[in-house]
Amino acid sequence: xxxxxxxxxxxxxxxxxxxxxxxxxxxxxxxxxxxxxxxxxxxxxxxxxxxxxxxxxxxxxxxxxxxxxxxxxxxxxxxxxxxxxxxxxxxxxxxxxxxxxxxxxxxxxxxxxxxxxxxxxxxxxxxxxxxxxxxxxxxxxxxxxxxxxxxxxxxxxxxxxxxxxxxxxxxxxxxxxxxxxxxxxxxxxxxxxxxxxxxxxxxxxxxxxxxxxxxxxxxxxxxxxxxxxxxxxxxxxxxxxxxxxxxxxxxxxxxxxxxxxxxxxxxxxxxxxx
Length: 274
What we know:
single chain; 4 helices; 12 strands; 14% helix
């Protein structure tokens, strides 16, 4: 019996020892939930407002100064010129161009083949003031304004008085009065050749109605050629017909413009036979 109880006691103690010696397993725990940081949108970087390139204003064109007659006369050929002058007479208009005899109080100009509409041509009356842009040119001694354009200038008008050139003929001073409105009195018609008082064209190669008339006058013992320019005083005009009826030895008074071709060769605008 003692053995039986001892055995029971040993068994009970063994079970107790096992129970005491085995560590209790910890209760299973879930892995901690790590919260992801809330997604943040990338900050919106505002682009700077587009700015237009600054508008750079072109400097206003500087208009060339109007020249005095003295400055014009002193300027070299091919110089760009700007002048203000007054219409004295004009040749016939054609193909949007017109040649004008012009003047101011100090001198005169020939505006050759100046650009001009047909409408504006009607307004180019004697005395009308205009501003002319062009270039100083020279042909066979004639000083003129070429490649020209113009604009009207409101205000006063001017008509030049005729300059008596008889005392100046044969002198160097005469050229300083080129293109001016001039006069000669008591000049004598001389023989142009074979008893003729005039030629059609300079070499008598023309015919009535479509030619210039050339005639010679003796003044102060020397002979000078004068011209009826058909574009200034047209065939059929009083001047044109009067020159056609000249006779060698006639005494005449003439007025016109001191055009130049290898020397003085006035374009006349009136003639009186005495």
